[in-house]
Amino acid sequence: MVSEEQLQAIRQKLQTLKESGELDGEGADRSENLHRLFMYPAMMVPAAQEAVIKAFADCMPVGAWAIDPFMGSGTSLMSSMEFGFNVYGQDINPFAVMLSRAKVEKYDIPQLKAVCQEVSDRIAEDNDTSVAVSFRNIDKWFNPDVQIDLSKIRRAIQNVDSQLIRYFLWVIMSEVIRTGSNDRTSTFKLHRRSEEDIQKRNVNVIKEFAVLVNRGIEDIATYWDKLSKEDEKVGAPRQIIADIRWGNTKESIETDTEFDLLVSSPPYGDNHTTVTYGQTSYLPLQWIDPKDLSCPYDYVKTTQEIDRRSLGGQTIKKEVMVSIAPVYTKAPTLKSFFEGVPADEQEKYYKTLSFIADFDKSLDKIVANMKDDAFYIWTIGNRFVGNREVPNDQVLIELMESRGIQLFERAERQILNKKQPKKNNFSKTMEKEHILIFHRSM
Ligand SMILES: C[S@@+](CC[C@H](N)C(=O)[O-])C[C@H]1O[C@@H](n2cnc3c(N)ncnc32)[C@H](O)[C@@H]1O
Question: pLDDT tens digits for 73-105?
């Protein structure tokens, strides 16, 4: 149980943090080290995450567990591990599962280097010019020579015995797919580059793959060096457990573990429009061997499938209205927000309502796995829909309070360089995020 003095100390640390400007991640390089393994949408800023988690680390029991039920690229998990937390993460996107696993696992570096050398040799010796995969519109997204080279990389990875090393290599291949495909990559939705642009480009995926493999190995080694320096401070190597699963948080948390801390950022309800986690992962998922994917194959069949099954994926009015009704009682702010929208504009907000109804269901599952005196660190943005700011922060506060969990502290951070489109066709974009910290008063 956290004592009154400890709560005071946490408040004090958070206050100092708010005044320091550290939360904005000013000067922080999000591409540093292992975080740059793959450019996943809406990655959190590690420096900001670490600063907040640090305020809680001292009052947590030895062997404490942190959870991110929407782990994305695993930033929160990596940050929590730095403070000695065991971590659990889940995500509905099988690519996020692979990416996070590749980042949090402790590799044997000499073995990793040796296997990567074998992979590189195998690619160089491969004279096969057949294309190893086929999917709809493959020629639209990949030039013929890129298809042949990616097939060589794929065959070489399939030959690796260690599943964990395959994960690392699939992720590197995915980053090469992202940059070597004909997708414009300036938005998260797939858009083909112009013909002229495609003709002008000089893509060499094999060379790029080799560069990124070496960089990835260095980044892993640097991350674990950082962790072992922390071990030295503590005086003994910590045995950190990282448990990563594929799962739909709206349906269940795939473990019985009880958690001391939640550090997460949910999707903000724009997975169909601007931040399309699933669509961004679609091309890599077509090339990765299905035997290494953690989900049923139907999730990766179309560009829309993962986003459709994610929070807020349901857009049929009648169903949305049924699922939002019980949420209105818990979150009156949402009800008055929606009632304030003129009838002829309400349709634009079904996705928002659908997201919040799903998020509410997810909270039931999450809270059931949290210890009574757990802390919850949520980062959430009030996105704009039709130029109206959706009060996600206040809605979250009300949804948590309806479960007897109160707001403990809050802070804001300016979004300086979060990887998101600078503007979209629909409305203004967010300039700040809210860090909302909750705790159940005993
Ligand atoms: C904002 S991102 C998380 C960012 C992450 N905390 C990080 O540090 O990179 C939101 C994630 O929620 C996932 N998601 C959406 N719906 C989900 C669901 N029903 N169950 C589990 N994950 C879901 C998305 O796939 C996406 O990866």
Answer: 999 999 999 999 999 999 999 999 999 999 999
How close is the Cα of 358 to the center of ligand 1, in Å? 13
Q: How far is the CA of 416 from the centre of ligand 1 (A)?
A: 21
Alpha helices in 201-316 (DSSP H): 205-234, 277-287, 305-309
Confidence of residue 306 (pLDDT cuts 50, 70, 90): confident
DSSP 24: G
Which among 326, 329, 286 has a CA at the least distance from the CA of 305?
286
From 49, 310, 369, 419, give the residue whose CB has the most ligand 1 atoms within 8 Å, as the site to mutate: 310
State pLDDT tens for residues 331-389.
999 999 999 999 999 988 898 999 999 999 999 999 999 999 999 999 999 988 888 99
- Predicted TM-score (pTM) of the model is 0.93
Q: Which of 277, 300, 304, 418 to mutate to test the pocket of ligand 1 (most atoms within 8 A of CB)?
A: 277
Distance CA 150, CA 355 (A): 36
Give yes or no for residue 435 having a pLDDT over 60.
yes
Domains of the chain: 4-107+219-439 (3.40.50.150)
For residue 75, which atom of ligand 1 is closest to its CA?
Answer: 8
With beta carbons less than 8 A apart as the criterion, state whether 252 and 365 touch.
yes
Q: Each residue of 245-268: b (16+ CB within 10 Å) or e?
A: bbbbbbeebbeeeebbbbbbbbbb
Distances (CA, A) of 90 to 67, 96, 295: 8, 8, 12
Q: Are 377 and 264 in contact (CB under 8 A)?
A: yes
* pLDDT tens digit sequence for 169-186: 999 999 999 889 988 877
How far apart (Å, rounded) are the C-alpha atoms in residues 154 and 357? Answer: 40
Residue 7's identity, in one-letter code, is L
Say which residue the tokens 């049923």 belong to: 296
Which residue type does 231 have?
D
Tokens, residue 289: 């061997």
Contact residues of ligand 1, CB 6 A cut-off: 42-44, 68, 70-73, 75-76, 90-93, 96, 248-250, 264-267, 277, 310-311
Q: Are strands 432-439 and 388-389 parallel, antiparallel or unpaired?
A: unpaired
Task: Name the DSSP letter for residue 198.
Answer: H
Q: In ligand 1, which atom is closest to the CA atom of 40?
A: 9
Q: What sign has the CA pseudo-torsion 411, 416, 421, 423?
A: positive
